[in-house]
Design brief:
alpha+beta, two-stranded antiparallel sheet, 2 helices, about 35% helix, about 20% strand
């Protein structure tokens, strides 16, 4: 009985170490590499450089922005994207 319990513990330990290792190796060599390729339309639109008051260069990234749609929310109120959501990130699902 004692030998059977020891075998169960060893098998469980081996299996619990083998499964994550096998998943890691599979994903590393055959699967996802961790980088997501964005469509060109949603990528970086431009990279602007300017100088601060101290004379140091400052790099700023500009992303694609939508221009002025007006939508109706679930309550029937009109929502204007540029005014109502200024300086906020907005995720829209149609």
């Amino acid at each position: 009985m004692q030998g059977r319990k020891l075998k169960s513990i060893l098998f469980g330990s081996f299996f619990s170490a083998l499964v994550p290792l096998a998943a890691f190796l599979f994903l590393k060599f055959k699967g996802h590499d961790g980088h997501i390729v964005l469509p060109a339309f949603y990528g970086v639109e431009s990279i602007d450089t300017s100088t601060d008051e101290d004379g140091k260069p400052r790099i700023d990234t500009t992303f694609h922005q939508i221009q002025g749609p007006t939508l109706v929310n679930q309550l029937g109120d009109t929502v204007q994207i540029p005014q109502d959501f200024k300086n906020k990130i907005l995720v829209v699902n149609f």
